[in-house]
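<goal> How does this chain fold?
<body> The protein record starts here
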Amino acid sequence: MSTTTTATRRRESPLARAVRLGGLRIGYEVRAYFRQGDTVFFTFLFPVVMLTIFSVSFSEASFGQTADGDEITAAWFFLPAMLAAGVLLSGLQNLAIDIAVEKSDGTLKRLAGSPLPVMSYFIGKLGQSFVTGLLQAAVLLLLGFTVFQVPLPEDPANWWVFAWVFTLGVLCSAILGIALSAVPRSGKSATAVVIPITLVLQFISGVYLRFSDLPEWLQNVAAVFPLKWMAQGMRSVFLPDELVVLEQNESWDHPGIALALAIWLVAGLILTSLTFRWIRKDS
């Protein structure tokens, strides 16, 4: 390292240093993520596999028609739901399990004693969720468009909605995942604790079932949690407006989606500040 570079880094503010190290940490976290075969399958490839299964299994079924008379195929209908599920898995499920394991095997304890700023650690985790979630969304969209001939939106306004729903969804899911990592008592039990939670949320939020087919009381329960709103936001982007009648209030309700995700994001930040510890209290 040159003398000039060393002097420049000495003049860095703590915030600038934390952000710089956080950027480097993102690269490390992404590489570590893709080296874990089981994690890649159950978080990255799982929605891709499920979209393929649903598209093939219900290839003869019709999920409605557009105003032009085009049939809405299973792949078209389930693509938005799988995009929302992918956001949940990349954020909440992946981070909850990953951090619980790091807490259990002593990784967090070692990091707590290192010069790495706390902010850099969290930037790395949030960045990992965003990068893997974005790659996953790209794979799902490519699969839907090329293999199952799902039409993609042509209106830039739809892609703007996708961008803010995706960004808010990733941040919300990742922060809640960090908070949820405090629940498993060990790294070994993390999978058993976290995966059932994400599976239940997917079933009641209209990912694997048509949301309008669920009982009204279960729709109301699902509306308490963020996945329902992420799925609704994705449907508003990729499904034709004729299907808006299947939503709870027969509206895509973009302001409601933004409000619900923002509330959960703030709630997740509060929960994380109260529950996150580098080591368990009972360890």
